[in-house]
Amino acid sequence: MKKMKVLFAAFLLFTCIRLNAQTVDEIVNMHVEAMGGKEKLAALKTVKMSGNMSVQGTDIALTMTKSQMVGMRVDIEVGGTSNYQVANMKEGWVFMPAMGMADPVAMDADQLKSYANQMDVQGALFNYKEKGSSVELAGTEKVDGNDAYKIKVTYKNGKNGTYFIDKKTNRIVKTSGKATMQGQEMDVETTFADYKQTVDGYWFPYAVTNMQGTINFDKVEVNMPVDEKIYSN
Fold it and tell me: How far is CA 89 from CA 45, 181, 206, 232, in A?
């Protein structure tokens, strides 16, 4: 009888684990469909987003270019200066003359890992197993008053991040994680809003808010030719 109870308890535990795994994958699949679908995302290779933001009354023009797991470049025009952050899978640099920098500074290993994860234009949750990542459903949480699934992601390179997926839209409304800034590790949150569909059938957030402010994008291009040399210093 005691052995039967142990076996039954083990069966229940196994069932709960299986149900939890299925639930995570169901949420991920719904999210993928909400972003354009599997075929669309698999075909997404490059993205270019242009917009602006205001920081303490200063207008900043920003252009972000990405190639799928190849490189990422952010060009920033502010106060008559041209600034950039650029990285490929091997190295990265930051050049911000607006902040008094005279020469580009190489990213450290931790910064480069964070940038590398952002090079995934198809989204961290799409084909996450094939990419060597793992996901965990960590419950639900309110984001701007709406219920959202909380999914923790561990990337292949060891970095971690948390994605909040709105239960109604199945789109990401917030991410949280850690980033190294000026030698210090900090908690970083980013929120995503004003999703719009491109003529190609992809969905992108046109309002992205982080600790610096809100970036309002007005133009999104996909699958355009990109010279990979732009991802080198």
Answer: 15, 20, 26, 10
- Greatest Cα pair distance, the chain, in angstroms, is 79
d(C-alpha 148, C-alpha 140), whole Å: 5
CATH code of the domain in which 145 resides: 2.50.20
Question: What does R_g of the chain's alpha carbons equal in angstroms?
Answer: 20
Question: In the structure encoding, which two tokens stand for residue 142, read together?
Answer: 């309110």
The C-alpha atoms of residue 195 and residue 38 are separated, in whole angstroms, by 18
Cross-strand pairs, 41 = none
Per-residue pLDDT tens over the stretch 38-93: 999 999 999 999 999 988 888 999 999 999 999 999 999 998 999 999 999 999 99
Give the number of domains in the chain.
1
Q: Which residue from 127, 198, 123, 131 is spatially nearest to 165, judged by alpha carbons?
A: 123
pTM value is 0.86
pLDDT digit string (tens) for 166-181?
999 999 999 999 876 6
Question: What values do phi and psi take at 203, rounded to 5?
Answer: -110, 130
Neighbouring-strand partners of residue 38: none
Among candidates 126, 169, 122, which has minimal Cα distance to 144? Answer: 169
CB-based contact 151:27 (threshold 8 Å): yes
Segments forming the whole domain that contains residue 192: 2-231
